[in-house]
Structures are given as structure tokens and as C-alpha cells.
Amino acid sequence: MKPKAMCGATEVYPVDILEDDPQAYQTAAEGYYDLLRDGGQTSTEVFSLPTGEQVRLESSSLCFCSMYCDEPQHKILVLVNPQDTKTVVAVYLKESWWSMEDVLRTSDPTREGLMKVQSFGERIVLFVLNTIVFGRLERNLDDDDMFFLPHPTKEQAKIMWRDGAAVGFYSIKRKGSLCGGGTSACYLLPVFDTVFVRRKNRCQGLGTAMLRDFCDTFQEDEALGISCPISPAMYKVLRQFLLTYPGERGRLWEVEPPGAWGQRFNIWLKVYLQEAKLQDGVDHQRTRNDTELPRICQKREGSWDAPETFLA
Questions:
Q1: Which of 15, 48, 70, 294 has the most crowded CB, counting CB atoms within 10 A?
Q2: Higher confidence at residue 243 or residue 142?
Q3: What is the pTM of this model?
């Protein structure tokens, strides 16, 4: 069911062998699906789940998923769990079925740390991490956890590789890029848009590393955005990051597109107000601090006017 390993490698994975020809893979997948659906190919093969359960490879267990939010016609064929048809268990690539974990692995030792998404294979990894692993497998569907749509076709993103596996990603809205379909508005600053780290790799500093990489990538920009709304978990990461790197406190803003000054709120200030509220048991929106917010957050002559010490 899978290609043989290359010479010198113990295993090969899709990200290492896929050519940048997504249409060819989609055409092959459509042909395979049509054969199963029309009875032209009777499959007795099964795919084994980690639980030991086996899923028969037949058209009723297959569906096509759109890879991009802006070009839904580009799709990949996936195998779903018959007991939960919204849960993907394998992806059809290069005339083979690959488990989710295999799609996220690499045999290339140079893939380590944060690496920019460039190839079609890396786009597949980004899609699986975002839409399948986060979107269904590792997100608590019973609470208000944030939900990410598939990324646009040319979304700038970086994948975090560790010990031969993709363990997270973050994506960026570049300054000057369109805010979305149906609008001519463009982002006025670079924005850290979506971020995800797999559960088993959390509390290891990876979120902080991604923020550090984002800030370093745009060293020349005076202001950087974090896409609104920010989840409570992400606020904890931001708090730790800004405690560790105080020089970034005046640069990071929670923003709504396109990120004009009236659409920004300084993250360090918000962290300070939240912690002060917890410490004092006072609603700061009804205190003198609230009257100071316009002055605190105001842009004055190229510099950020803010209190010198928060959370000292």
C-alpha cells in the first residue's frame, strides 16, 4: 500500500516524495474513487486503525476534502472512520493510503525546527495539522475552543519539525495582503494569524519559539499584530513571551483586520489589566485606569507611549 523506502532510508513519507503536481494527484484519486463507486474495482483491502479496528476501503468510507478556503475545487481523497464520519484516518496520495501520523512524518534529517511551507507535500502537512489533527482529533468539541478554516492557497506559514515529525505550525498575514475575499482592504502590519502545537508537544516552549521567530522575521516593523480573538491558552503563551522578551512589549498588538490604530489593543497592557483585575478583584473598566487607556495606547511621534513597568 506504500512506496518502498529509498536507498539508505528505513521509511519514506509523503512530504519527502510528492512532486509539486497537485492536479495529477487529484486526478488519480478521482479515478480510484470512481472505480470503487461504480464497482469497476472490488476492494477486499482494509485499513487498520490504531485501535485495531479495520476499515474496509470502499466508496462509502471515502470523501473528498477541500484543501484551501479560497480554491475549494482543489481536493484530496480521505478515508473516514465509519463510526465517526467526520474523523479522517488516512489520506490517499501517490496511489497509496497513508495514516495521519505517517503524513506528518519525514525521513529527511534536515527538516528540523521551524521551516517555511513551500512544496505541495508541505501544504498537505499543513492541511492535515490544521484541518484534521486540530480541527477534529485534538480539539475539545464540547467547549468554545477556537476553530480554523483551511488556509488560503498561498498562505505564508511555517511548520515546526521535531525528531522527524511535524508537531505544530503558525501562519502569517503579510503586510499589504488582502484581508479576505470580497474586500479591497489590505493588512497594515504583519499579523501572526493561526498557531497550533500538538497536545503531546505542549509545555515545551514551542509557542514561545514561534512568537520569537515571528518577531525576528519582521525586525524592521515597528508594530506586529496577533489575530483577534486570542484564545485564553494563547494569552498565557503571550504573557510568558513578553515576560521573557520585554523589548517586544510595545510591538505586539491584538488586531482586527486591516489593523488600523483604532483596531489595535496592546497585548502587554491587556495582560496587565487582566492580572490586576484578578489581584484586586476590581473591574478596571470602571476605574481611573480606564480613562488612561486612550493615552496609554496612543501612537506618539513614532514611539509607543505606555507605562514603563507592567507585572514587575
A1: 15
A2: 243
A3: 0.83
